[in-house]
Amino acid sequence: MDDSAQRVLAYLTEVEEAAEDVLADKQQIVDLDLKRNRNREALNALRNDRSLNDKANVCFGNMFIRLPKEKTKTMIQKDQEQIDKEISELRKRLKAKVNHLNELQGKPELKGYNLSPLSNEEIKAINSILKR
Amino acid sequence: MAAQMASTKVPEVRDITRIERIGAHSHIRGLGLDDALEPRQVSQGMVGQLASRRAAGLILEMIKDGHIAGRAVLIAGQPGTGKTAIAMGIAQSLGPDTPFTALAGSEIFSLEMSKTEALSQAFRKAIGVRIKEETEIIEGEVVEIQIDRPATGTGAKVGKLTLKTTEMETIYDLGSKMIESLSKERIQAGDVITIDKATGKISKLGRSFTRARDYDAMGAQTQFVQCPEGELQKRKEVVHTVSLHEIDVINSRTQGFLALFSGDTGEIKSEVREQINAKVSEWREEGKAEIIPGVLFIDEVHMLDIECFSFLNRALESDLSPVLIMATNRGITRIRGTNYQSPHGIPIDMLDRLLIIATSPYTEKETRQILKIRCEEEDVELSEEAHTVLTRIGQETSLRYAIQLISTAGLVCRKRRGTEVQVEDIKRVYSLFLDEQRSSQYMKEYQDSFLFNEAQTAQMDTS
């Protein structure tokens, strides 16, 4: 292969890698959200369970284990917090990665992408101009 | 009923004035420059004026990069040499994201508003603020809604809502409030909905394609959308661009939010403006907002008086200031409100701040091109000879007069059921409508029979 072909190949590899990176992160967010929703369902189920039994069957992988309800609840809640944190972290990293990909592809930088959002009250205050 | 009519009427009236103003330059799509900023002879509706277009292109690039906020440009030239066209070209090439405000010099004279207030409002309309709104939403296709009514008939309802995306499916427990808003929005299985996590507001995006067969007998207004992809709980970020003036208006309390719709905003207190400035710069420091300096275009700038010029001088020095583009067709004339003469009717200290672009009269070939473009724009077919005659008229009288003859000749042509405007049609409208020179000639010949004839003091006072 001659020089220019080599260069094109290297460039394409770089773009593909960046794109793959973005896709992987996106998939991970989806997987985490799936887990988050399952945890939420479990918490709801625990709350609505009116049986006198103070233990619940909890499924770990392939095995059901009887655990005290309170303990299960705190365990799941902790897991939930962890997932929330991970998702927001992933989203933050994803932004930088998408920017990097756009730059590699020669696309213009997204406008206002790096702004931090206005707070709820501020949005409410200027809502009347946004809803045109 | 009456209130409803009034509220629907206002935007209508506004629309018409807008179309009218742009009408004469509706064929302009941009400045007609190539990537190296070299002007093309005929492009994007622009013809000739190569040097001025190149200069305008340079300024445009600087505006885009945000380099020359707070500077001013003057486009000077004889009537009908494309000053407004160049300004329109700049407006078109800036894109929708950069604010562009156009106003004619005479527009600032109003009984309801002081001149400086009108100018301040125009200035602040030309400055954009980019802000971001971030919301957590749940977006999915409704698989099932199950609502249990309590057996006694009273008491809180409970229920379950199953939502899915292409990747996952989950069940939400519903409280009575949620159930109420779901039934209010008439959500059924197969709808694609979003729920705002912060407010609990539900909105329907449409019906899922996969359920399209179920709704075969529905009207055309049902909108079908794809089942959402990815995670259920998403973060939505929307970037808005608003102008400083809009923020002023909603914060000017005496007006209330209605002021935005009536178009008559009255005067805004300077304290309000100062508060807004402080808030916006606070946002900017916190990374919550970006300032986009836009463009304020003042046509017929010689109509401004000395007070306005001193206001402009001062306003340009503020750190929140747009690029000011002015246009004038006057030579050395009296500055309005004084007895002093100055080039373009603009005070020397103001002129000193300006980058001046000059436009020159069009050549015959260019006139021909412009007339051709206008014919296309106005949907009038012109025969070759008629085109030549019209070009001649354009050279001898004025380009504007020739352009006005296009649509009138088109009407005459249609009247005699012709498809193409011939020389006869042009001749007919030329005899029907006088141009400026012939009209003055007529005046001179018959002045004695006109009323209030004061031929001795014929010099028009234009300033």
Automatic annotation (TrEMBL), chain A:
The entry's keywords: Chaperone, Cytoplasm
Domain of life: Eukaryota
Classification via Gene3D superfamilies: 1.10.287.370
GO cellular component: cytoplasm
InterPro entries found in the cross-reference section: PDRG1 (IPR030482), Prefoldin (IPR009053)
Cytoplasm as UniProt keyword: yes
UniProt subcellular location: Cytoplasm
Name of the protein in its database record: P53 and DNA damage-regulated protein 1
Organism: Chanos chanos
TrEMBL record, chain B:
Main location: other
A GO-annotated cellular component: extracellular region
The keyword Nucleotide-binding is assigned to this record: yes
Catalyzed chemical reaction(s): ATP + H2O = ADP + phosphate + H(+)
Pfam family, one: TIP49
Keyword flag Manganese: no
EC numbers, comma separated: 3.6.4.12
Location relative to the cell: Dynein axonemal particle; Nucleus
Domain of life of the native organism: Eukaryota
Keywords associated with the record: ATP-binding, DNA damage, DNA recombination, DNA repair, Helicase, Hydrolase, Nucleotide-binding, Nucleus, Transcription, Transcription regulation
GO biological process: axonemal dynein complex assembly; DNA recombination; DNA repair; epithelial cilium movement involved in extracellular fluid movement; regulation of heart growth
Function: Proposed core component of the chromatin remodeling Ino80 complex which exhibits DNA- and nucleosome-activated ATPase activity and catalyzes ATP-dependent nucleosome sliding.
Family statement drawn from the similarity comment of this UniProt entry: Belongs to the RuvB family.
Protein name: RuvB-like helicase
Organism for this UniProt entry: Chanos chanos
Underlying gene: ruvbl2
